[in-house]
Amino acid sequence: MGAGTAAFFLAEPETMDELFSVTALCRSLSVPVFPLGGGTNLVGADGELDICLIRLGSGFRTMSAEGRAVFAGAGMKLSALLDSLAERGLGGAAALSGIPGTVGGALRMNAGANGREIADFLSEVEYLRGGELFRVPADRGEWRYRTSPLPEECIITGALFRLERVDPAEEKARIAQERRRRAERTPKGRSAGSVFRNPSPQLPAGRLLERFGAKGLVSGGAEVSAEHANWIVSRWKQQVSESDCAALISRMALNVRTGCGIALKTELRFVNMETQKKAESSAAPLNILLLKGGTSAEREVSLESGAAVAAALRAGGHCVREYDITELKVTDEMRAADVIYPVLHGGFGEDGSLQKMLEEAGLRFVGSGSCACVKIMDKIASKKIMDRCGIRNPKSIVVDDLSAPCPKELGFPLIVKPPKEGSTFGLSLVTAEEEWRPALELAFRHGGPALVEQYIDGVEATVGILDGKALPLVEIRYPGKLYDYDAKYTHAHGETVYLCPPAGIPDAAQKEAQDLALKFYHAVGARDMLRVDVLISRKDDSVWVLEGNSLPGCTSSSLLPKAAAAVGISFPEMCCMLAAAAAVR
After folding, report:
1. pLDDT (tens digit, 9 = 90+) per residue, 498-548?
2. Is 251 an annotated catalytic residue?
3. CA-to-CA distance for 530 and 528, rounded, in angstroms?
4. Judging by DSSP bridges, how do beta strands 9-11 and 52-54 pair with one another?
5. Which residues contact 236 (CB under 8 A, 6 or more apart)?
């Protein structure tokens, strides 16, 4: 981009001997060196810095091949390397052929495109560090998305790659096709490439920036491209300053952080690291402590959900620590966190006990407060609230005695379940009187009393609510007679199918289900999120509310993330949005 208004000292050693001489002189004078690699998305400085920038000269722009092994100098253009390899019938890396810059620059940031990265073809890296030349094997597991494990202060001098045998003509055609595609998509004007890393392959930074109004933002001579919201370009051929870039980066990141809670990470590198820190500070990541596990019957589900949420929050740029909580105790980790994110199902995680402890300690956390959690978790209390507010729900009675007779007034079939368990633990369908006692005993294993409901022959569905807004229904089609633990998680009797939007529920019933779910959300005083389970009668399409869930599951088969995805809210966005909302309470 040519950004940065200050002059700088540049050395361009042509050979390895010259490179050793320059770096030795810099060490003797205590002058830091900074490698200037093509394709490193570098932004210069506005004020003079006591550093020596090094750009490798012609002696580092050669290559040699032996079989499928190719050693390329770090100063060689990546595109030129791939062209030379294609001539020799070597390739497989055509997906990278549109990446600008040099081999060294591409290695420094592990450049990639089309799902491939330069590390996919890497065998060894040669670099200079502290006056000593190293040649180290490349462990693919250490190379991350847009990040290399190479020491920050090293100067990459070359790399050994291993390529595939290819048909030269076909490889050249693939290279040409990729360059045409890249040329069509690359914004016009001088730039330093993408500003931010993609939080995930399914969630491009450019899409987030466009959604939250970054396109067209201007600061001095720098402008967010009107063609691609993740690119800053020189404006009207004006001089672009370091401060212009820093100001734009801050505004872009803040727009996204405010809009959906995601903390974007920059790909641009500043020569002046203090400027980079300031640019990134306006939308700094949160320090989140994620609570998982617990001691309830749903512990295993919580551990799976917790791992998924932690991964989503990290994809969203936040710093996450995971804590397997087995007792109610405020810890130093909790006090040090910006936000506590409970991913607990059942037990003290959902019955309000954890929330009350955090409230009393003055700590911010995701989800409903303690009073709402008590009402939501206790199905008996929930039904009383629904009755009082006119929310249709199945008729029921409470049985607190194991010797109680079967309540024939509700008719058969009956649903028997514990009132304070989730994931359908202890749930039974009673179709005849001889099934009554075993069902009651199963429910009482989770603590009495038991809640006994009339059976509604209907289509099962759930309504997710995020930040007070009802999401589309998820229709649930399961193989057995009940949507039980097996139908949710283990699938021993066949797979459960989730449809969003629903295929077998009339539009009017869907709207009524959303209205009743929102009514329940407000009636219990819920916050952030809620999942409300409903049945739509096969007889007359009437909607019956079953129960709510204050901390819905977040496994691969969980329903709240499915509903959010149906309206364009990805899983990382959903989790980050919830964390960001809690952070400002």
Report:
1. 999 999 899 999 999 999 999 999 999 999 999 999 999 999 999 999 999
2. no
3. 7
4. parallel
5. 221
- 298 part of the active site: yes
Query: Is there a catalytic annotation at residue 241?
Result: no
Report the distance separating Cα 121 and Cα 199, nearest Å.
23
Question: b/e string for 305-326 if b means 16 or more Cβ within 10 A?
Answer: bbbbbbebbbbbbbebebbebe
Catalytic residue, from 126, 178, 378, 533: name it.
Answer: 533
Distance CA 542, CA 285 (A): 46
Closest CA to 175 of 96, 115, 111: 96
**Choosing from 351, 453, 528, 547, which is the catalytic residue?**
547
pLDDT at residue 297 tops 90: no
- 423, 428, 558, 570: which one is catalytic? 423
533 is catalytic: yes
Residues 6+ positions from 429 with CB-CB distance below 8 Å: 413, 414, 415, 439, 455, 481, 482
CA distance 16 to 203: 42
> Under a CB-based contact definition with an 8 Å cutoff, are residues 483 and 463 in contact?
no
C-alpha triplet 366, 371, 377: angle, nearest 5°: 80
Residue 512 falls in the annotated catalytic set:
no
Active site (annotated) includes residue 547: yes
Catalytic residue among 207, 441, 489, 515: 489
Q: Which two tokens stand for residue 431?
A: 């179709």
At 564-573, the pLDDT tens digits run 999 999 999 9
Which is catalytic among the residues 369, 553, 570, 573? 553
Is residue 327 flagged as an active site residue?
no
Average pLDDT estimate for 550-558: 83
- Its pTM stands at 0.80
| Residue 114 among the catalytic residues | no
User: For residue 423, what pLDDT band results from cuts at 50, 70 and 90?
Assistant: low
